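Ticket #4471: structure output looks truncated?

Reporter: J.K.
Steps to reproduce: submitted the chain below (77 residues) through the standard prediction queue, then opened the result file.
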Amino acid sequence: MKDGRRKQLDSANISGVKSGEWFRLKIVQQGDKIEAYLNDRKYLETTDRTFMKAGGIGFWSKADAASSFDDLVVTAR
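Returned output as attached by the reporter:
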């Protein structure tokens, strides 16, 4: 999301995620390369140059979703 506009970078077909269950989400960004993992399995690999500087993270979910986050860890490499 930048300047009020959402841009979808990629999508994945993920099965087995059930409502009410916790899972591990990991996003790795190095330069313009982005990888997304769910429960340690890589589902996405893409590139984007929108946010190249360190300093912020954000979460977005669909309007009808109830999302909770716990044990958030951000590391710099």
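Triage note (M.O.): checked the attachment and the full token line is present. Residues 26 and 41 are 9 Å apart (CA to CA).
Status: closed, working as intended.
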